[in-house]
Amino acid sequence: MAAGTGPRRFVFATGNAGKRRELARILADCEILSLGDFPGLVLPEEGDDYAANALAKAEAVLAATGVASLGDDSGVEVDALGGRPGVHSARYGGPGLDDRGRCDRLLAELASVPDPRTARFVCVAACALPDGRRKTVRGECEGTIVRAARGEGGFGYDPIFVPNGERSTWAELPESEKDRLSHRGQAFRALLRWIDDPAR
Ligand code: ITT
Question: What residue ranges line ligand 1, CB within 6 angstroms?
């Protein structure tokens, strides 16, 4: 990605290490600081709206640091579940579960649902800039939920999601392929284009 005219140094307002690794790759020509660089900083409680959540994270971190900030709110929407877990994906199944536990729980809930179990990943990328500008951009990637988890890469629900046009789960595909197709890749590349040129 060619360097543009907007800021190239951001704090990424996330506590999720998987998201952090991906954004460092997606915005490889930017300097991405993490919450670990600002001890004591706490992200706001999340509500039911991806864009409001993403912007609230970015605004809280800008207010605390004074540095241009990025936020990400994301989730997986399963059609057979009416779009659940969606914006509540991080909390699906309750506080006792880890990523693998949430995958297993979702597979169990879908056990009686025939293939194809269509779903999509959604990411709203937000920025809060010191000059007062704010923006949210939504990215989506359509796919299906497999019958059993496969692959060791990625994070979250990656072992149970196959994007349309592929046979492998996101946990099996090369990272570069996930970044090219993913909800997060689409949203943050578009957000950086807007930061560089708000008129587009
Ligand atoms: P922050 O709020 O600190 O950013 P979080 O994990 O709580 O971290 P979200 O509220 O946005 O983030 O929850 C999104 C959840 O959806 C996340 O915990 C993952 O389980 C899942 N998720 C989002 N993007 C994903 C991806 O690319 N691959 C797999 N799972 C993903």
Answer: 14-16, 19, 43, 46, 72-75, 89-90, 121, 154-158, 182, 184
Domain membership flag for residue 1: no
**Which residue in 73, 104, 115, 197 is the catalytic one?**
73
Confidence of residue 151 (pLDDT cuts 50, 70, 90): very high
pLDDT digits (tens, 9 = 90+) for 83-99: 999 999 999 999 999 99
Inside any domain, residue 3: no
Provide the CATH number for the domain around residue 13.
Answer: 3.90.950.10
Confirm whether 121 is domain-assigned: yes
Ligand 1 atom showing the smallest separation from residue 73 Cα? 11
C-alpha 178 to ligand 1 mean position (Å): 15
- The predicted pLDDT at position 1 comes to 45
Identify which has the larger pLDDT, 40 or 137. Answer: 137
Question: To test the ligand 1 pocket, which listed residue (12, 19, 34, 145) has its Cβ within 8 A of the most ligand atoms?
Answer: 19
Q: Is the pTM of this model over 0.90?
A: yes
User: Domain total for the chain?
Assistant: 1
Domain that holds residue 143: 9-196
Residue nearest to atom 7 of ligand 1 (CA): 90
Backbone angles phi, psi at 70, to 5 degrees: -120, 140
Q: Does 116 fall in a domain?
A: yes
Measured between alpha carbons, how far is 200 from 177 in angstroms, rounded to an integer? 26
Question: What is the per-residue pLDDT across 21-54, written as a single tens digit (0 to 9) for each?
Answer: 999 999 999 999 999 999 999 999 999 999 999 9
